[in-house]
Design a protein that fits this description.
alpha/beta, 5 helices
Length: 187
């Protein structure tokens, strides 16, 4: 097999809500590792099955599985931030196929988006590219974008150690991935 050829895209399914059972494409050749179905099921059990009225940010959207799952469960607004052109094209196709009107796709680097955006969110998904763990400075840069009592989902090789005003609500592990749900609770 020619190593220069892009692999055929894979697919992950939406596990709940309006788009349940629909498939989200994972672009071939992109360095994407979408959040597995069972991890997303656990996350949305932690969050509650419905996200009516919630404003979400999927900062490293990749396949968009987390953001589209949130839209499927009634989120009022979902912003998907991605810089990879192939992934952006798939995100746009998926949004159109689902009719996910509550989603906005932003072509940008995560740091540039945080530096320039003014919008605030109730729920943020942080699933950076594999082995590029989010660090404490990312959580700090995220604070101006958080609404009171915001929740942050963090996926990484190792769990993050957090200090107040952050509080860990839940933590689990699936294979090589640790995932946590954090609360931002300023005084």
């Amino acid at each position: 097999m020619n190593s220069n050829k892009r692999a055929r895209p894979g697919r992950v399914r939406i596990v709940g809500g309006e788009y349940r059972g629909r498939r989200v494409a994972v672009p071939g050749g992109a360095d994407l590792r979408p959040t597995p179905d069972r991890v997303r099921e656990t996350l949305f059990n932690w969050l509650g099955q419905r996200l009516d009225g919630v404003r979400c940010l999927d900062l490293y959207a990749g396949s968009g599985a987390l953001g589209f799952e949130a839209a499927s469960r009634g989120a009022a607004r979902v912003v998907l931030v991605e810089k990879d052109r192939g992934a952006l094209a798939e995100l746009r196709r998926t949004r159109a196929a689902l009719g996910a009107a509550a989603t906005e796709i932003v072509a940008a680097d995560a740091d540039a988006y945080l530096a320039g955006a003014g919008e605030r969110f109730d729920l943020v998904f942080l699933d950076p590219p594999f082995r590029q763990n989010a660090d404490a400075t990312l959580l700090e840069r995220l604070i101006p974008r958080l609404r009171p009592a915001a929740r942050v989902y963090l996926e990484a090789a190792q769990p993050a150690s957090v200090q107040p005003p952050w509080r860990e609500l839940k933590r689990s592990r699936a294979g090589q991935v640790s995932f946590q749900l954090l609360a931002w609770e300023p005084a």
